[in-house]
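lol forgot to send this yesterday, sorry. struct tokens for the thing we talked abt
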């Protein structure tokens, strides 16, 4: 048993593996199957802006197949308006309990204050039914929708459960309260969110009020599948898909920003005969950590496909694509100028093409993003080929068939170096163009912070090419 002060840890609760980061439980998996995306506590103030917690205590006790976390945090911008005491326990039988005791420190208005549970749409959309216990204790069944639902996915319920085809049983219940569940893809998030209402009787929270919420997640499986950890990511390239074409890419100077996808999706009748339908992609509205922004990219595909379902003849323009939220914060997002933005933009190009979008306007500054978009603009109108990458894995990839040959794009989605093996045939070597952070010798400083343009030729041995990617590196191969 180990006891520590920690902010990032890989934990186990029986068959469940998960990441603890920034006071949240993320990427809860059995084997390689994601069963729940996140469990966290959140405050949404009067303007829906979520103040981030300032942790006074994070204490973790960990064993091989169980853990216990105690946290204390305050929330608010200019001054603290709320304090939480959070206790999380994960047991060896696959049960995880997330309990929040809250105290209002100053009067404020809250749209919502409570625990949220996110279910990843990549794993569940159109493939998984679920059962809920309704407010009147009756039960009903439904399905995680494939297309983006304009309304709630589930009304008031105390618990939600589902069972996968490979025998994993998942149940999540709220103690002494009720969930509702919305389709967050309306706002650029790649998840369905089960949210709770204030345990404080009204939106006007007053100093001295206290409340408690507790969520219990139970996971059972007869035989946890194997975990593919520690091995290089293996990638095979498929055949080009003529329906998945790289869209026209416009610079920020040609942007006329529009509302997020919820606007046309909730007003479908007024868009059915439109020549062009525009919506913005601003996935930082709810949470804006690196994980959230990178994972939300996949929401573009169901957004565009949903648009095609009610406006099939319209041109689809995504404008603006930005790391900035709809409600501006005091300073621009610093990730605009770093390698994160380059990797983020490269993934967006992939998912816009898979979805069949016609036009895209990127309002992302910085040399990394601009270099990626310049290279992507050379592929406009070309079909992309899918690859065998796991959407929940650390690497993303796609290929574009150009007149002079294949281009394979590799994208490191993480802050860690990643090893990759690409299956290639009939070629002794591959040209590699890297868009990576310039690495300087110790003690040497640079006046620029832009990407290093690195070109090299690497050998292909036995039909395979092996290479390593730096954090958030984008790499383009030409076999």
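and heres what i got for the seq, position by position
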């Amino acid at each position: 048993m180990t006891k520590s002060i920690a902010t990032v840890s890989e934990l186990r609760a029986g068959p469940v593996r998960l990441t603890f980061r920034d006071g949240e439980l993320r990427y809860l998996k059995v084997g390689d199957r994601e069963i729940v995306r996140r469990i966290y506590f959140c405050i949404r103030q009067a303007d829906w802006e979520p103040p981030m917690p300032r942790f006074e205590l994070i204490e973790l006790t960990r064993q091989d197949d169980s853990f216990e976390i105690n946290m204390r945090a305050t929330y608010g911008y200019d001054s603290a308006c709320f304090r939480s005491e959070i206790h999380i326990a994960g047991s060896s039988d696959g049960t995880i309990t997330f309990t929040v005791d809250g105290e209002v420190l100053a009067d404020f208005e809250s749209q919502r204050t409570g625990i949220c549970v996110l279910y990843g749409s990549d794993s569940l959309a159109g493939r998984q039914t679920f059962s809920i216990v309704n407010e009147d204790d009756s039960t009903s069944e439904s399905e995680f929708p494939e297309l983006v639902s304009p309304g709630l996915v589930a009304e008031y319920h105390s618990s939600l459960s589902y069972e996968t085809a490979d025998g994993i049983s998942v149940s999540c219940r709220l103690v002494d309260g009720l969930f509702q569940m919305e389709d967050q893809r309306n706002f650029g998030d790649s998840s369905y969110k089960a949210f709770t209402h204030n345990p404080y009787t009204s939106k006007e929270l007053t100093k001295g009020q206290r409340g408690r919420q507790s969520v219990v997640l139970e996971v059972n499986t007869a035989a946890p599948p194997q975990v593919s950890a520690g091995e290089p990511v293996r990638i095979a390239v498929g055949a080009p898909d003529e329906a998945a074409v790289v869209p026209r890419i416009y610079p920020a100077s040609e942007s006329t920003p529009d509302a997020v996808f919820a606007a046309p999706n909730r007003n479908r009748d007024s868009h059915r005969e439109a020549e062009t339908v525009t919506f913005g992609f601003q996935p930082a509205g709810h949470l804006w950590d690196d994980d959230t922004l990178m994972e939300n990219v996949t929401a573009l595909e169901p957004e565009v496909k949903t648009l095609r379902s009610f406006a099939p003849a319209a041109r689809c323009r995504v404008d603006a694509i930005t790391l900035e939220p709809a409600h501006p914060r005091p300073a621009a997002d610093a990730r605009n100028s770093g390698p994160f933005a380059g990797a983020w933009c490269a993934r967006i190009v992939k998912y816009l093409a898979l979805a069949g979008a016609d036009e895209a306007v990127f309002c992302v500054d910085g040399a990394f993003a601009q270099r990626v978009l310049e290279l992507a603009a050379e592929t406009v109108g070309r079909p992309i080929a899918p690859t065998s990458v796991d959407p929940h894995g650390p690497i993303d990839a796609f290929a574009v068939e150009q007149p002079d040959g294949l281009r394979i794009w590799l994208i490191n989605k993480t802050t860690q170096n990643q090893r990759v093996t690409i299956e290639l045939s009939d070629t002794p070597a591959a040209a590699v163009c890297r868009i990576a952070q310039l690495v300087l010798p110790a003690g040497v400083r640079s006046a620029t912070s832009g990407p290093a343009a690195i070109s090299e030729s690497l050998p292909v041995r036995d039909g395979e090419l092996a290479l390593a990617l730096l954090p958030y590196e984008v790499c383009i191969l030409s076999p």
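Residues 2-221 form a domain with the Beta-galactosidase; Chain A, domain 5 fold (CATH 2.70.98.10). anyway ping me if u want another try
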